[in-house]
TrEMBL record:
One of its GO terms (cellular component) is cytoplasm. NAD(+) binds at residues 9-14, 36, 90-92, 114-117. This is 4-hydroxy-tetrahydrodipicolinate reductase. (S)-2,3,4,5-tetrahydrodipicolinate binds at residues 148, 157-158. It comes from the Bacteria. Pathway: Amino-acid biosynthesis; L-lysine biosynthesis via DAP pathway; (S)-tetrahydrodipicolinate from L-aspartate: step 4/4. Keywords: Amino-acid biosynthesis, Cytoplasm, Diaminopimelate biosynthesis, Lysine biosynthesis, NAD, NADP, Oxidoreductase. NADP(+) binds at residue 37. GO terms for molecular function: 4-hydroxy-tetrahydrodipicolinate reductase; NAD binding; NADP binding; oxidoreductase activity, acting on CH or CH2 groups, NAD or NADP as acceptor. PANTHER family: 4-HYDROXY-TETRAHYDRODIPICOLINATE REDUCTASE 1, CHLOROPLASTIC-RELATED, DIHYDRODIPICOLINATE REDUCTASE. Its main location: cytoplasm. GO terms for biological process: diaminopimelate biosynthetic process; lysine biosynthetic process via diaminopimelate.
Length: 260
């Protein structure tokens, strides 16, 4: 049976990518609603600018996929918590307080959040800490992320997720170790530091490079997203995995990949 999908941010880049896959693979996915402002074109399902209104007629087992903005995603999470619908969020730019709010709502309805829906990126999150520990503390760590000129948050959520796993491997807190701006006479680079730098331009979907810089050598690990389809498929895979899932925790890609 096809999984019923409701897309929040349906007119956005990711919303359109998810729609295209769902429409092409109707044996697996069924669009039960599109939520966004503006004209959705010749939509094959109900279209509304209001999530609460959409959920009044949506099947109980429908899963919401949300790629919007932090405040809009939180509002949708509150609405989903009232209706009991499962929610998959790919929005980035949440503050620490907003993430705590999402975690609290996840105790009432199944919620999945990931800063990056790519399987490849999340495999990196799993294996990078082992590389940090194997190399030791003599290697400086830097991250550079490159995205299109429409991206609103910086650094990217993916860069911060990579930074968090790297910092944890050294028993550091990323908020204390992160340096995202260097200008002027700044002195020598502190050892307890992870640089996270952002580049914006053109139509680049997303490139993240982690540098391990030692004496006489460096290691570069780079993930390049060639299209948004990769993220859209990850979000749809998460929606299938979340269908029928119980509330109780804020789920993520590591839970899905490990079958937790």
């Amino acid at each position: 049976m096809a999984i019923q999908i409701i897309i929040a941010g349906a007119n956005g880049r990711m919303g359109r990518a998810i729609q295209n896959i769902a429409l092409a693979e109707q044996e697996t996915y069924c669009l039960a609603g599109l939520v966004d402002k503006g004209d959705a074109g010749a939509a094959p399902c109900a279209v509304s600018g209001d999530m609460a209104q959409t959920l009044t007629t949506a099947p109980a087992g429908a899963v919401i996929i949300d790629f919007t903005a932090p405040c809009a995603s939180l509002e949708n999470a509150h609405t989903a918590a009232k209706s009991g619908h499962a929610l998959v969020i790919g929005t980035t730019g949440f503050t620490a307080e907003q993430k705590e709010e999402l975690s609290a709502l996840a105790r009432h309805t199944p919620i999945f959040w990931s800063s990056n829906m790519s399987v490849g990126v999340n495999v990196l999150v799993k294996i990078l800490p082992d590389l940090v520990r194997a190399l030791g503390e003599m290697y400086d760590i830097e991250i550079v992320e490159l995205h299109h000129n429409h991206k609103k948050d910086s650094p990217s959520g993916t860069a911060l997720t990579l930074g968090e796993c790297l910092a944890q491997a050294r028993d550091w807190k990323l908020d204390e170790a992160r340096c995202s701006s260097r200008d002027g006479i700044i002195g020598e680079r502190p050892k307890t530091q992870i640089g996270v730098q952002s580049v914006r331009g053109g139509d680049v979907v997303g490139v993240h490079t982690v540098y391990f810089l030692g004496q006489g050598e460096r290691i570069e690990i780079c993930h390049q997203a060639h299209s948004r389809e990769n993220f859209a498929r990850g979000a749809l895979r998460a929606a299938v995995w979340m269908h029928g899932r119980k509330a109780g925790k804020l789920y993520g890609m590591q839970d899905m990949l490990q079958g937790g």
